Amino acid sequence: MEDIKYIIESLLFVAETPLTINRIQKVLGQADTKKIHEALTALAAEYEARKGGFLLREVAGGYQIRSRPQYREWIKRLVRPSPLRLSKAALETLATIAYKQPVMRSDIEHIRGVDCGGIMRMLLERKLIRILGRKQIPGRPLIYATTKQFLEVFDLKDLKDLPTPDEIESLGNVPRNV
Questions:
Q1: CB-based contact 34:42 (threshold 8 Å)
Q2: DSSP secondary structure code for residue 113 in this structure
Q3: Which residue, among 131, 142, 78, has the nearest Cα to 106 in the 3D structure?
Q4: How far apart, in Å, do the first and last CA atoms of the chain sit?
Q5: Tens digit of pLDDT for each residue in 72-99?
Q6: Mapping DSSP to helix (H, G, I), strand (E, B) and coil, where does residue 164 land?
Q7: Does residue 34 have a pLDDT over 80?
Q8: Beta pairing, strands 54-59 & 62-67
Q9: Maximum separation of any 2 CA atoms in the chain, in Å
Q10: Residue among 13, 9, 67, 16 at smallest CA distance from 40
Q11: Which of 37, 76, 94, 101 could join 145 in a cystine, given CB atoms 3.0 to 4.6 angstroms apart?
């Protein structure tokens, strides 16, 4: 399998979601994970050295070919995607779930101090959160967590890439030029 790098490149090109090494291995059959990882590293290095219109990113537990951020404006002119718009309340709810997961709705409402049923329904519809199951307590409430779609939308490799509370607080302390 000497063409493994180019086969993987083709798979990444047509994949709609990030491909994990395990998924690539299932498609390739006899390739071992070390060779797949080496091929991915080589592709990423080639794309970076070339400085072309795209790069290879590790995101949401897998790998994906993505356009370079500096060309975003031209891509928007062509594609005109509907931007993901989330209200402040939706962002607060999503952040609470991201940092406290697995979490119950009652915990989220306790933290936010308001009902969040409608917001959570919307986040479920947009596939940013998911239901993990039910907690084994009276009433058996649902337990929520973020999804791979959440990681993709926010360009995170995994949940460890979320900013720490100290990093968030330091953003609030930056003086603004008014």
A1: no
A2: S
A3: 142
A4: 60
A5: 888 888 877 666 788 999 999 999 999 9
A6: coil
A7: yes
A8: antiparallel
A9: 60
A10: 9
A11: 101
pTM as predicted: 0.61
- Give 23's pLDDT tier (boundaries 50, 70, 90): very high
Residue 142 neighbours by CB under 8 Å, 6+ apart: 104, 105, 131, 132, 133, 134, 135
Task: Express each pLDDT in 122-148 by its tens digit.
Answer: 999 999 999 999 998 898 999 999 999
Give the span between the Cα atoms of 158 and 152, in whole angstroms.
9
Cβ neighbours, 10 Å, residue 46: 13
Q: Are 98 and 162 in contact (CB under 8 A)?
A: yes
Predicted confidence at residue 81, as pLDDT, reads 64
CA torsion sign for 18, 23, 27, 30 is positive
Contact 129, 144 (CB under 8 A): yes
